[in-house]
Write a structure and sequence with these properties.
Cytidine Deaminase, domain 2; 3-stranded mixed sheet
Length: 57
């Protein structure tokens, strides 16, 4: 299993359309090789956004 994490230096942790699309593609690709994606977390200097917590995966 893996958890994806990346940062948004802008300070806004909300995912862009591209973040959502890439996450979905990684989830699809990981299924092919039997790896579960548990979450994708976007971090800033003082906040975080969890795809799983927000129901995006």
């Amino acid at each position: 299993s893996i958890i994806l994490v990346h940062n948004h230096p802008s300070g806004k942790p909300e995912p862009s359309d591209a973040d959502i699309e890439v996450t979905n593609r990684i989830i699809e690709a990981s299924r092919v090789v039997g790896i579960d994606v548990l979450d994708h977390i976007i971090i800033t200097s003082d906040r975080a956004f969890s795809f799983k917590e927000k129901g995006l995966m």
